[in-house]
Structures are given as structure tokens and as C-alpha cells.
């Protein structure tokens, strides 16, 4: 009797190309960089050091760590949630359930109710039971607390159960809390693994703030994705969805993703839907370039505008002062912030541009030269605006060490393809 043939697996497009979630079908381990091997090597080595993982926004840092240290196997913290070192210790205690005191209150009544009982251990609440009672109702409430110092309880818990600690977006930790948390981490690394995730220009923040951490932090830099690495997403995704790419559509999408797998996932999803493919196609569908790539990209850019763009274009608030008009050689007028954004767009745009390149570009298109002091001051203002409006996401723009970092690939994409003009 012949073996039964396996039925082809059907995929939904939304589960193949995923932006903002950990992918499965289209996950690229980037084996050439040995990223998973580097993280595993650190974890297998055992306590003694922390691991700092840095890379551009939406470059897959968090996805990499999540696959090796899922939330049920590690204590995950968001940097934006850490306003103090106490928040850091509380997160550890809450995950481990380390409470050393349970206060029980009782209320009795005459109606039918439930009697609740529990036993206390470490974790302190080991079991809960309920028995029906008639006539008399006994309600018991619990309040969990600690008698020992929070630091002692957390360290003792991690000594008994050395669960890895992950701080995602370490650069979002409140400024006043960064040095105390760095010191706290220093006391934990002899016991357990600690992973810090940050953007590149803040990668060494913990070391700078706690000098004694020198030699105690291993570094892993996540480089921007190459076109070939991004094409891995389209190749595997198209194959799963029955889309055959004979016109290098995946190449065009990858080249427009600015090294960001997050954006590549978004573009592949939108393109596949434009073919009418919402699930695995049977028979297969041939990928064809849209009639106008610019129109395709413009539609996506305008649908997903960078929230920070308008704030950057408007610049900081002024007290009734009129900004100096900056006149382009083609006659258009704007102010220095519109001119800077135009210059950024004309550089590619690209994720990092030096002051020298930006200054040369902006003065190439304007009738009158702008002084270096005015450019530097405006770039610092743009960085402050991006920091103020970052919300719970990454800061879109940062000016540091005479370089402007465009940390949001969607801002780069909008600058290149979106409908905008320097005119206010």
C-alpha cells in the first residue's frame, strides 16, 4: 500500500509576513553573523558578565533574544518601566513570586459562601483550595508583603533559581536610575546572566555610568541587514504563500527597507495583498512588478507616516519670533528645519549622516550659506524634539558625536517616498 501523501500546508499571509511580532516562517537567523551562537555562548559560559546587545531600531535585537530567552524562561523588563532601581528589584521579585509574609483577613457572614485556604512556601503561595459552607460564610483575603530588604530577597531568590534577566531598551531607563541599576546589575552577574538591549549610540551607557563595570560586559553588535538577508524574508514568505518571483520583486522590496527587517515584513505583506493573496495560493501566483513602484511605495509611506515627522518639520516652539526664511536655488522657501529635512532626504536618506556631509548637502541646495553654529543648534533641537515625542517607542532622531542618527526606518522611508514638502 502506498504511503499517503502529505497535504500541503496552507499559510495565512498575515502569519507569514509579520511586522511588530516575532516571525516564524520568515525568521532569518542570519547565520553568517553567528548571532544565535554568540548569545548561546554567553549563556553557556555561565555567570560572571553581562551581555550588551546593540543595533539599529527594528533590526531584530529583541526577536533574537526572545527566541533564545522567551518570557517564561527569563525575567524581562522594559527600560521605559524602570524609573528607579526599586522598580528593577521589584520586577525580579514579582517574576519569582518571592514574598516572605502573607497577612490573612477574615469576614464572617450568615449566607452561603466559600471558605478559602492556602499554604505558604517559596514560592510563598503553594496551593489554594475552596470548600463550600452553608449558613456561615467565611471570606479570607490575602496581602502579600516582604519583611526583608527587597535587594536581599531578590538576590537570594536568584541564587536559588538563577533565571536570566533581560532589560529591553536599556536606553529608556530614567536617567537618574541608570547608574543605580548598573550597580545593581554588577551585584547580580556573579549569580545569573543579564542581557541589556540598546540602540547603538547608547550601547555603552551602563559602562560609562558605572566605571567598575569595565571588563564585566560582553558586547554583541547587530549590524544593519544586507539586501540579501532581507531577501531571505521575501523568498521564504513567497514560497510559503505560493508566489513565484521571476522579476526580482523581492530585491526591490529589500533595497527599499533601509536595512530593517520590520519594514521588509511590512512591504512584503502589502505587496502580497496587492496580488490578491491572503493565504497560500493554489495554483501558484506569479510575482510581477507593480505598474509604478513609486506609486506603490508612496501609498504605503502615506499610510504609515512617521509620527515624529511633523514635529521635526515644525521645529521647537518659538515665542512670537519669526524664523529666517531659507531660500532654495529653485525659489522655494522654508526655515532651517525644513531645509535640514530636505538635506537628510537628499543624502539617500541613510541611517547615519555626519555633520560635515549634512552641512555640505544643505548648503548645496540653498542660495545663502547657513553657519555651522546654526546647523548644530538646530540638530540638537531636532534630537530633543524626537526624545520628547518618543512615547513608548525608540527615539526617531538623535544627534551625538557630530553625527545625526535616523533611528526609525519608517522615517527614512517617509522622507524618501512620502508626500511632503519643505513649504510650511
Average pLDDT, to the nearest integer? Answer: 85
Structural class: alpha/beta
Beginning-to-end CA distance, first to last residue: 76 Å
- The percentage helix is 25-40%
Q: Which architecture of the largest domain does the CATH hierarchy give at level 2?
A: 3-Layer(aba) Sandwich
DSSP summary, beta strand count = 16
The number of domains is 4
CATH level-1 class of the largest domain: Alpha Beta
Strand content: 15-25%
Weakly predicted, low-confidence segments: 1-5, 101-106, 108-140
Shape: flat
CATH superfamily of the largest domain: P-loop containing nucleotide triphosphate hydrolases
Number of continuous helical runs = 16
Describe the biggest sheet? 5 strands, parallel
Spatially, the strands of the biggest sheet line up as 2-7-8-1-9
Using only C-alpha atoms, the radius of gyration works out to 27 Å
Instruction: Give me the CATH fold name of the largest domain.
Output: Rossmann fold
What do these coordinates show?
There is one protein chain. This protein is of the alpha/beta class and 424 residues long. It has 4 domains: 13-18 and 225-290, no CATH class; 31-93 and 154-221, P-loop containing nucleotide triphosphate hydrolases (Rossmann fold, 3-Layer(aba) Sandwich), CATH 3.40.50; 99-145, no CATH class; 309-417, Orthogonal Bundle (Arc Repressor Mutant, subunit A), CATH 1.10.10. Helices cover 39% and strands 19% of the residues. It contains 16 helices and 16 strands. The strands form 6 sheets. It has a 5-stranded parallel β-sheet with strand order 2-7-8-1-9, sandwiched between helices. A 3-stranded antiparallel β-sheet has the order 14-16-15. A two-stranded antiparallel ribbon has the order 3-6. Strand 15 and strand 16 (403-406) form a beta hairpin. Helix 4 crosses helix 5 and helix 8 packs parallel to helix 10.
